[in-house]
Amino acid sequence: MSRSRSSKSTQPAVARPASPPSPPSPPSAVVKNSSAEQSWVVPEELDKRPVDGALRTLAAVPWSEARKAITSGKVRIGGETVLDVLRYVRTGDRLSLHPAAPKPRTTQVKALDRDLIVYVDSEVVVVRKPAGLSTVPFGDEAPEEITLDALVRDVLSRRDRIRGRAELGVVQRLDKVTSGILVFARTFTAKKHLGQQLRDHSMHRRYLAIAHGDVRGGTFRTYLVEDAGRGLRGSAPAGRREGQLAVTHVTPVERLNGATLVSCQLETGRTHQIRIHLAEAGHPLVGEKVYIRSYRGEPLIAPRLMLHAAELGFAHPSDERPMRFEDPPPKDFQDVLARLRAPAT
Description:
The chain folds into two domains: 29-101, Structural Genomics Hypothetical 15.5 Kd Protein In mrcA-pckA Intergenic Region, Chain A; 105-341, Pseudouridine synthase. The chain is built from eight helices and 15 strands. The chain has helices at 27-32, 51-59, 63-71, 104-113, 148-160, 188-199, 273-280, 331-341, and strands spanning 38-41, 75-77, 80-81, 94-97, 117-120, 124-129, 169-170, 179-185, 204-212, 218-225, 234-235, 244-255, 259-266, 307-315, 322-326.
């Protein structure tokens, strides 16, 4: 009985292609999970783009991941932590991503500790508000977002070694997109005293703004209503006394290319007062996103609303001594101003 003999296949060997490499991790994983830092030099084609769009392009991540990285304090421009997704980048900027960076509350408190407080005593605290920060909570903030009043409490608690939250009374507010100086009260008596100064129009408040077009200036006196049409705040028709009286004194400071640097002194302090008055006069602020629908010109580019609270004056609550403070516009405002001063091409 013959025994079956195993034999090797006589068919020629077929070369099989190598298995394709495993696909790389999705771009979003770089932001969410990787601890490796990354950096890029902003190319010319991304010049004057908001930082969220630039990061999305350079890091190849979704919009949501780019914005989350920014608002969580993980993105820097030139070494400076950026928390505003609308901050513009320029050609040549060094944009970097730091996944292991601390949370924005820690970052903001440390970064603003040396610059936040302009003046403080037992009754009042005058602070310098950066653009992109709400003065107080409005209920629509992201979970990791901090507000100015909370920052001030943190700084005062650490400065004065107070256990828990430092007492702070809100006297005035600035829009989230507005920069500049404002005052908080540290006692109930001071809050009441400063509030009365606002009501009787004795508190001095002067803003700098960049507005579209050739602004002639003058005094704007209207009554503002919640809905003047299309769901926007605005002035009631002439002759109708409904809503709240708003008075703004506007003085041209410098003519620019397509815009005017103006000084706005408030007699009253209504919500969006300066923005509404100038927009209704045909001169919406540069960087305006809301009160610009009826503007027929070409909107000028800016990283945010070009409005800055430059001067503040009040009588001190304890002894009526006059207090006066000035704050120059921040770099983003100065950059837009310099660009609009350059000779038109």
